[in-house]
């Protein structure tokens, strides 16, 4: 069993996965762990969509890329110029060909939904790392707008995707980058 410090060091952003599926039971265990995350007033607004079909994940990548590029062309989104060319590449999968994608969604009416879902995502990442799995939050993958796709995913009306998280067995775990000391602005005793 890993110590907490080892777990912190082993939780890395993974974008290169083994060609190995994750059991649905394992994904459900990870999501049970995620429900232990704190939420405002214990509201627990987070909902989860599990996609473990690579063709569907690729289709979601394609839709997200299309919508993001359209937003960029219409000056509704700013992108690093390097991303534009990558997103135009039909072979590029924003989900890095991961075997599993989890959309964390929540109700738009809950003012703390982004914070609540972000806390749940951190629990997903640590729960996955404790099982030898890798994750990465893929912000480029949340631009799903087609009503048919949203219906296929089961996204309820009045809810939005907060975080797309990819999950899989990493080919390698990169070393943690150098971290600076905590930037304590002030101590009041």
- CATH C-level category: Alpha Beta
CATH topology: NADH Oxidase
The CATH architecture assignment turns out to be: 3-Layer(aba) Sandwich
Tell me the number of structural domains: 1
Gross morphology is: globular
| Biggest sheet: strand arrangement | 1-2-4-3
Q: What profile does the largest beta sheet have?
A: 4 strands, antiparallel
Percentage of residues in strands: 5-15%
Distance between the termini: 38 Å
In short:
The chain is built from 6 helices and 4 strands. It is α+β, with helices and mostly antiparallel strands and 189 residues long.
What does this protein structure show overall?
The protein has 189 residues and is an alpha+beta fold. The protein contains 6 helices and 4 strands. The protein has a 4-stranded antiparallel sheet. α2 packs across α5 (113-130). The model has no long low-confidence stretch (mean pLDDT 94).
